[in-house]
Amino acid sequence: MPRPTRTANDAIAELSRRIRARREELERTQEQVAYAAGVAVGWYASLERGQRLRPELPSVLAVAEALEMEAGDLFRGLKADRLQRR
Predict the structure, then answer these.
(1) What is the Cα–Cα distance from 8 to 20, expressed in whole angstroms?
(2) Alpha-carbon distance 55 to 63, whole Å?
(3) What pairs with residue 82 in β-bridges?
(4) Which of 4, 23, 71, 77 could form a disulfide with 64 if both were Cys (CB 3.0 to 4.6 A apart)?
(5) What is the per-residue pLDDT across 28-40, written as a single tens digit (0 to 9) for each?
C-alpha cells in the first residue's frame, strides 16, 4: 500500500497555520509581528497565508523570535517528500 505523499506545500500550509495561531494567541496584529521581526507586512501576511513556497530562513527565524517561540517549534514534525508547483 503506497503511503500518502507529503509535499512541501503541505508543510508550508502547516507552518503558516502555526504562525497564525501563535500570533492570535498573543493577540497581536500582523503589522505588530512584522515590525518586531523586521519584515514587510505584505511579506509576513503572505507567509501567514501560505503563499511563500520558499520562505527565507533568516526571516522565518526573525518571525519566530517576534512570536516569542523557538524556531524548532515552528518546524517540529514537518516533512516533505517533494515540492509541487501550484
Answers:
(1) 18
(2) 11
(3) 7
(4) 71
(5) 999 999 999 999 9
